[in-house]
Amino acid sequence: MNTSSGTEKCGYCAIIGRPDAGKSTLMNHLIGQKIAITSRKPQTTRDRVRGYLTDERGQIIFTDTPGMTDLKGGLGKYMTSGIKKAVSDADVIVVVCVPAYRIHEEDRLILDTVRDIGKPVLLCLNKIDVFDRDLVEKSVKMYGEHYGDPEVTPVSALKDINTDALICRIFEVLPVGPCLYDPEYATDESVRDIAAEIVREKALRLLRDEVPHGIAVVIESVKELPEIMHINAVIYCERESHKGIIIGKGARMIKRIGTEARTDIEKLTGTHVNLSLSVKVRQNWKDSASSLKEFGYSEGRNGQ
Ligand SMILES: Nc1nc2c(ncn2[C@@H]2O[C@H](COP(=O)(O)OP(=O)(O)OP(=O)(O)O)[C@@H](O)[C@H]2O)c(=O)[nH]1
Ligand SMILES: [Mg+2]
Predict the structure, then answer these.
(1) N- to C-terminal Cα distance for the chain?
(2) What's residue 1's pLDDT?
């Protein structure tokens, strides 16, 4: 997509940080569209997810990543390799932290890891809407001093506070170059992938704690007709008892997951959606190479 004026900027921006810092919420708000799923539960994001922001200054290609923490098992390895790939592809890295009186140990590790890789690193403190001003100011100073970034950007992704300042900072450090993606679109993720993620988000948000991290969603078919899109999805879980919880009494839970997911998919696609959900058990799928592959958590989808 060459619409270059010669001063236009374009490049890749990886969004990294510890689980639950608000990375996916931030990316969605920066690009103005819900591409990445979010929830109160840590380790919501499993895949790298790409979204673009295009304006007269150029194009920022954001990559949202899974929360950086001690990720274990086959799925953990997959998530870690996705973060590494996003960082190595990036022209600029945004590290998302949350205001605190002391620098969180995981933030320290992340900052120490990225500070020496020779790329611009912008630090942002998210969720300022829920912290008092004094703490936010102290945190900005403390993170800035520790990290040598005098311009730590305080933001609220959820309330869209000061996110423009972050966008300005990203454009400042991006290389000059023509836009790489069609400005009409905010992502190159497929409807299939986003639909699977939306179903997983609703399950994450609605289910009891023991179930969510053991689920995967596979879209078995998508059929687009002129007025309606038919989607068949399977929610895989690890145990028979989890299956019962996901379906719920009188199938109430699965119906709720389906209704909420359908509403979001309809918003995204702008068409009516008929979403059929079923639930299957697949024990230990998170450590099974063949199941990980079948569920899309293998080379290719994460670009390794
Ligand atoms: N109050 C407030 N909540 C926020 C803000 N940004 C994100 N959240 C909430 O924080 C929770 C986690 O947000 P996510 O965007 O899923 O966090 P994440 O960093 O992508 O999490 P992982 O994918 O698990 O690493 C959700 O409940 C969000 O609604 C913010 O600016 N203010
Ligand atoms: Mg996330």
Answers:
(1) 25
(2) 52
Low-confidence ranges of the chain (pLDDT < 50): 2, 302-304
Q: What type of residue sits at position 12?
A: Y
What domains lie within the chain, and their CATH numbers?
9-173 (3.40.50.300), 191-294 (3.30.300.20)
Say how many residues make up the chain.
Answer: 304
Amino acid type, 139 = S
Structure tokens at 174: 């991006």
Ligand 1: distance of its center to the CA of 288 in Å? 29
Q: Give residue 304's pLDDT.
A: 41
Residue 302: per-residue pLDDT? 47
Ligand positioned closest to the Cα atom of 34: 1
Per-residue model confidence (pLDDT) at position 5: 60
Q: Whose CA is nearest to atom 10 of ligand 1?
A: 22
Taking CA atoms only, the protein residue closest to ligand 1 atom 2 is: 127
Taking the CA atoms of the chain, what radius of gyration do you get in angstroms? 20
Among 212, 219, 299, smallest CA distance to 265 is for 219
Alpha helices by DSSP H, 97-132 = 105-114
pTM value is: 0.90
Number of Cβ atoms within 10 Å of the Cβ of 80: 17
Atom of ligand 1 nearest to the CA of 42: 24
- Name the residue of 30, 38, 47, 65 whose CB sits within 8 Å of the most ligand 1 atoms, as the mutation to test its pocket: 38
Q: Which residues line ligand 1 (CB under 6 A)?
A: 17, 19-25, 38-40, 42-45, 66-67, 126-127, 129-130, 156-158
Chain segment 199-234, per-residue pLDDT in tens: 999 999 999 887 888 999 999 999 999 899 999 999
Residue 199 CB contacts under 8 Å (≥ 6 apart), including other chains? 217, 233, 235, 257, 261, 275, 277
